[in-house]
Amino acid sequence: MxxxxxxxxxxxxxxxxxxxxHQPKSGIRHSLGHDCAVLSSFPRNLDLVLxxxxxxxxxxxxxxxxxxxxxxxxxxxxxxxLAAAGATPRAALITIGCPNPRSASRILQAYRGLSRLAKxxxxxxxxxxxxxxxxxxxxxxxxxxxxxxTSPSRSGAKPGDILFVTGKLGGSWPHHHLTFTPRLxxxxxxxxxxxxxxxxxxxxxxxxxxxxxxxxxxxxxxIHPDQIPLSPRATPRHAFTQGEDYELxxxxxxxxLSALLLQWPFSTPLTPIGICLTPRQxxxxxxxxxxxxxxxx
Amino acid sequence: MxxxxxxxxxxxxxxxxxxxxHQPKSGIRHSLGHDCAVLSSFPRNLDLVLxxxxxxxxxxxxxxxxxxxxxxxxxxxxxxxLAAAGATPRAALITIGCPNPRSASRILQAYRGLSRLAKxxxxxxxxxxxxxxxxxxxxxxxxxxxxxxTSPSRSGAKPGDILFVTGKLGGSWPHHHLTFTPRLxxxxxxxxxxxxxxxxxxxxxxxxxxxxxxxxxxxxxxIHPDQIPLSPRATPRHAFTQGEDYELxxxxxxxxLSALLLQWPFSTPLTPIGICLTPRQxxxxxxxxxxxxxxxx
Lengths: 297, 297
Prior knowledge:
The first copy, chain A, is an alpha+beta fold.
């Protein structure tokens, strides 16, 4: 048989997906190269966790960002959200927005960076999609699992709960936003031991994400600016307004406080930064602004 | 308590998601407004089906396309892929690429169109994501289910199998590509009755999608151009090269042919257009070009 012609789209996709190399296959019936990915169902004692996230040139990275770090970041952001849900990642889909045929090699590099992080978490890339866009864009959709009824929401914090963050905040640019490790192990551990009454990941800065937790939970809060754990050269204002820290922010009932501090098994810093109040008690930040990074501003 | 400030991003998202109105809630633990959507797991006799798909201004619609039809199309394209997998859609995530604050009302309209189609299929929108992009962009991720081990791949067609298409092909622009109905019921019926040896949906035209099926299945084929069911004013060449028909293309073992034709319960046309051959017998299209729409050309 003469070879059937490959479109340049098919050719690129074949090249990109081969950059993923050897992937986990357990529980996967159909994967790359089918209309849809098909997976075996998970046991009923698990809940399914779904998340989608995108990075765009000029917003989340620049033209000079090394492409492997773009791919890495695209995946790591979504994984950070799964961490906040206490979830284990199980499968990922990639959407590529490709500005022109010359971008193909940059995308290949991005796949390599993404693939390295996926392998670290034993995460198969099971499908994807390519579209022509004016800017380079990578969008990742994730499926994860979490023990039934354990995934914390943003809405469970109660007055009196202590507010914690993992890691150090601020100064994410120019490096940390490309190289951070999503706090998956920490999130899974916290949820397995039922510590968080509410949890989210810090993607837009304390000044934007803390109000989201407070609104959802209908609480007030006091933050102690001098207790915020800071990256080198960062200020509490950076921690509030800059975003892209990808650390966990969560509330813990006061009676679980000593258990949490005694049992925390990670080298990742764990810091109490404030306390939840009643709505009537208001919100207090020592003068730090309650606004963070705003994608539509 | 003074009201916590809402970023313009949070304000837009609240407005857009309210356009979704009353949504199905069964099996959904966390939905919009959380880091991740959390769903109850499905029974083990079902497989999970995952798909992501995007539409972009200037590629899949124009600046003058009515916004509700953009939202409708964004969702319908992904549903068409689920149809090819024989799947029932269970949950959707939406990613919005928003060029500027003025786009917000256009996106609101798009959500309304998308929501109408979602309601028709009892499909909850469980999460989303907003990013700043230069072009308006909607990306949809879908989770579906299909009875265990029944979802057809592209790779199961055998020499001697008959090639079928649903509906009529060609002439998708200027209207059909915005208003088509994904062949979910047809795909689910075909898979439940185990007719297709291979199946995919026609998104890039017979000239691109048929070679994909043939390559995956390692078959040759003969197509009878005068048997291709055509839309008004379309030619077989349109059917091969234009794309965006969103009909099903599938192969059926010859011994199941009469059962399929006798039992087909839909008013949707069902047409045999050719036959699968051995690779050595090659591929024959009566001169029609084996190329379709190419996103990277």
